[in-house]
Design goal:
- This protein is an all-alpha fold.
- About 90% of the residues lie in helices and about 0% in strands.
- The protein is built from 2 helices and no strands.
């Protein structure tokens, strides 16, 4: 009869702790693989980045539209002044023709 050497209780506890830590690490890795959280986070970051670019383009377009609106208002004012002058000129022409 060969008897297996008895392990020291501290060694047994250490071995159990190491085993538990390894098992916990394996469980965490499996959960991460199963949940695909890394892929979801990557996709969310990509979507956020694409939205940011769209917002930036929209902001630039709004600034351009604001400038165009200002130019159109300036042109409308100039046309209005021209119409007023035209009315005055027509009145003067009528006076001259009499």
């Amino acid at each position: 009869m060969t008897s297996s050497p008895k392990l020291d209780p501290k060694t047994k506890i250490s071995d159990k702790i190491v085993g538990n830590i390894n098992d916990t690490g394996s469980l965490c890795r499996q959960l991460l693989r199963g949940s695909r959280s890394c892929e979801v986070l990557t996709q969310a970051a990509a979507n956020f980045a694409s939205q940011e670019k769209s917002l930036e383009n929209s902001d630039q377009n709004l600034k351009k539209m604001s400038m165009i609106a200002a130019h159109l208002q300036f042109q409308a004012d100039a046309i209005e002044r021209s119409v007023e002058v035209t009315d005055t000129l027509q009145d003067q022409l009528k006076t001259i023709q009499r």
